[in-house]
Amino acid sequence: MPNNTSQLDLSQLAVNRDKPTGSSLRIKRSWLTRYVLPGGILLGFVCLFAWATRDSFLPAQSITVTPVVVSRAEIKQEGTPLFQAAGWIEPRPTPVVASSLAAGVIQEMLVIEGQHVKKGEPVATLIDTDAKLTLGQAEAQHTLQQAEVRRAEAALAAAKTNFAKPLSLQAALADAETLLSKTELELSNLPYALEAAQTRQELATVNVRRKENAGEAIPGRILREAKAELATAKNAVSELVAREPLLRAQLKSLTQKRDALAENLELLTEETRALAEAEANLAVASARAEQTRLRVETAKLQLDRMIVRSPIAGCVLSLEARPGQWLSGVGSSKSQGSSAVVGLYDPKNLQVRVDVRLEDVPQVIIGQPALIETAVLPSPIDGQVISVTTLADIQKNTLQVKVAVNDPPAVIKPEMLGKVTFLAPPSPISEETTGESPLRLFVPQDLITESEGAASVWIADLTGKTARQKTVTLGHGTTEGGLVEILDGLQPTDKLIVAGRESVTEGARIRIK
């Protein structure tokens, strides 16, 4: 085996420690630890500080808040008597008055107190003599005016006929054309007539000259007759000569008359005016007939109002008038006299007006059940609270509450005294199994915003530092401190915005002062 030890070069395995091989690595590590790492830590602290103090720099509205008022509710079983109060029975909602709609004197009363009447049944009559006379006069005027309408209709029919067929204008035009034709014929025959007249004149002249030359052989009478015939011939010639300008003037006049009649026949000016006037006269007559018809209707209504009728089906509560009494009528301008005749009420609609002590008023709720006791009934009857009045009695320290009588018996009458026991209404809160009273939430009434039948309040979202609007369900009535119970929509830990809620919007940033 050959010996190769002498051939190995161990110098290749030696390390030269004098050569600076790691200088670039040390420079890179020094830059990272000296600048990048401290800068990142400083930037993180700056971001953390900015996030912690963001509320001081971001715009936010300053507000004040108040907590929700929380109390324990006292649960009472439904139907448990709460308190009692006295009152009196009256019609619901109010008595009804049968009034006279017309002024007059009562002739007869047709009902008595306690009598049942139907709707529209007569309860009294008034003296109707004047009303009958007024109706007769109105009917006569209406009949007369109807005759005027028929006359106007006839005139309008004639005007329409003349407008459609103007026979008078056509006849006048035909006469004018006939005269014009006759005049033209005479004017055309005038030269021939003049020539004949001149011929007769010449013959008459020759005849006279012959007879004059004959001397005494011709009797004087014949000579005179010949001269007279000559004079007649001369006059005829003169007349014909003078007639030509007259005929030409007459021809011109007749031509103009014919043209005027033809144009009038085309325009129908007078017929158009007559037609429009006839239509206007008919409109006037019809309007006056309508006025007289309305007078007749008014007179009939006035006569019908001489009978006072019941406006409802019910029972007579009181007689407000008597025979011989003057009634002014509803809407009359006269201040003297009354219009009320009979007071009525519906026996099926009665209520009890109860004087409730002010300390018991918070227990009264609309729709609350009640029991009504009267001396005429052996046992109480059911009732229900329908309204709470707004004006308290300062002397009795009470507030009036109206309790409707459910299905009132016939023996109950208005003005009877009664006693009402107010019962606990159904509670919307169920009693917990632990036996603890449930929580009731209250808020000040002025913090509630009502719009379109919905109630809402503004609360502060402490987590997001924003304003939120919550819709809530209100309870019945308010407490003495002006607090309103909230049945749904709020939590006991909610904070209500007090100051600044008028200008906040949904989701707006807020700062609690």
UniProtKB/TrEMBL annotation:
GO terms for molecular function: efflux transmembrane transporter activity. The keyword Transcription regulation does not apply. It comes from the Bacteria. The keyword Membrane applies. Keywords: Coiled coil, Membrane, Transmembrane, Transmembrane helix. One of its GO terms (cellular component) is efflux pump complex. The chain crosses the membrane at residues 35-52. Residues 223-295 form a coiled coil. This is HlyD family secretion protein. It comes from Bythopirellula goksoeyrii.
